[in-house]
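Q&A log
Question type: sequence-to-structure
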Amino acid sequence: MHTIFEADETLTRNVAETQEKDIALGPNPHSLSDLRLFTMPHGGVDRLNFRTWDTIAVLRQGQEPVVDTVELRGYYMIERAEPTSANWADASVDIFMRALSVEGTSEKFGRVKASVNYEIGKESRGQVKPGTIYDSPADSPKMCEMLGYMRFELPDVGVTVFNKEPIQLRHSITHIPPVGQGGGTREGAEVNLYSTDAPDGEPVAILRRVKTHIGAWLD
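Response status: OK
Response body:
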């Protein structure tokens, strides 16, 4: 014979198992009205408006570097794999940056354009991490990390630079894709940039900081 406490535990466990089975992946969003908080959608491809604020130091031999924060605007395209689970708290999602095109103008070193570096032989990729940031899995954001390999064209300086070590972007997200949310690199996480004309030489610039804002789908 089961005690009332054992019966309650069995009922609680059965309810939890039933709820887990009832969870299903949401549809792949294509508009703002499709977004669902704390819900895992099917995999897909998102072509979204993207804005960054990049702090770049252009190095000069025997002189102080030229440092400026430049706003770059454009878009990026992210491919999302199928989540490992339909449960928001448990799931992870592999992501791949298939394209990036953002540009702007610095007051100090002129035009800047950033894109994915396909020639380095390393994929720009990341993951929506399993687990949640806070200990309330039903309504807590998840951590999304992207390791990017980029090219930065600075035509008015006469140089195109790239990173050998990944640029690590981190975003705290409450929905997928994370339209309207932002993040960037960690404070102090500087990345050396090398000239494409002398890839084995000394760095010619430093990416000191990146802040990001993820916009809505392109028209």
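Response note: Helices lie at 4-22.
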